Amino acid sequence: MSSSIFRKNLAWVAEQTQADPHVFTGIGKTPDPRILWIGCSDNPHSSLEIAPFGREGCLVHRNLGNQVSAQDANLLATLAYAIDSLQIERIVVCGHYGCHCLRHVLRGKALGAADYWSSPIRSLFRQHRRQLDEIVSEEAQIQTLCELNVRMQVRNLAEHPLVEARLAVGSLKIDGAMWSARDGLLRDPGIAGPRTPRPSRRASAASADMMTAP
Ligand SMILES: [Zn+2]
User: Fold this and answer.
1) Is there a binding annotation on residue 101?
2) Is the alpha carbon torsion for 147, 149, 154, 159 positive or negative?
3) N or C of the chain: less Cβ packing under 10 Å?
């Protein structure tokens, strides 16, 4: 490891300790995190910088494009641990405007060995190609694709059996969020997972009958 990494760590420790002399004394005695944060690997700013969670912290999973994939053993293990062991109460799927991974997809650039990983995002791009082509600037296109991606990942998450079961009893919430490097603000673009169980087809039909009844 580069010696500069150790020097930077020393500087960071000094800075943190100056701000709070007891900042490290409570580590290891903190309660279990109540939040699972799913973010993007190519966002250089961590969840702790974006939305400081204090000493309680949060459980973090990051991958390229903040994806929720049923084929991702790493995510599935984290999800099972978060839900079964930690009994977390909230999952945040956080995208970021200007995501390099999504920008490569938008420009049709190859990601080499990571091409297989970005395949779902390329499918999403093709699915919304017409909508994106109507947007004039590339920056606005990438913003829209980032939001569409978070929406898709929230949907994927809500459909996972472990998550679905917790959503059904109201003991878990999912939020989609977007972070901007331009102003540092975390935005709620109105992307939220279902908070109540989805009605069955039979229940939906009954409800529709009631709505149309005179
Ligand atoms: Zn990214």
Assistant:
1) no
2) positive
3) C
- Any idea which of 13-22, 120-129, 145-154 has the lowest mean pLDDT? 13-22
Task: Quote the DSSP letter at residue 198.
Answer: P
Q: In angstroms, what is the span from residue 79 Cα to ligand 1's centroid?
A: 20
Nearest CA among 175, 176, 185, 174 for reference residue 95: 176
Q: What is the mean pLDDT of residues 117-127?
A: 94
Contact 59, 84 (CB under 8 A): no
Is 54 domain-assigned?
yes
Question: Ligand 1 centroid to 199 CA: how many Å?
Answer: 34
How remote is the CA of residue 43 from the centroid of ligand 1, in Å? 5
Residue-range definition of the domain harbouring residue 116: 29-212
Query: Which CATH number do you get for residue 129?
Result: 3.40.1050.10
Q: In what order do the strands lie in the sheet with 90-96?
A: 59-63, 35-40, 90-96, 173-179, 186-187
Q: Is position 108 within any domain? A: yes
User: Is residue 6 domain-resident?
Assistant: no
Helix 138-158 and helix 161-168: axis angle, to 10°? 80
Whether 11 is covered by a domain: the verdict is no
Q: Which tokens hold the place of 176?
A: 């989609």
CA distance 41 to 43: 6
Domain count, the chain: 1
In this prediction the pTM is 0.82
Q: Are 113 and 197 in contact (CB under 8 A)?
A: no
Tell whether residue 96 is among the known ligand binding residues: yes
> How far apart are the CA of 70 and the centre of ligand 1, in A?
19
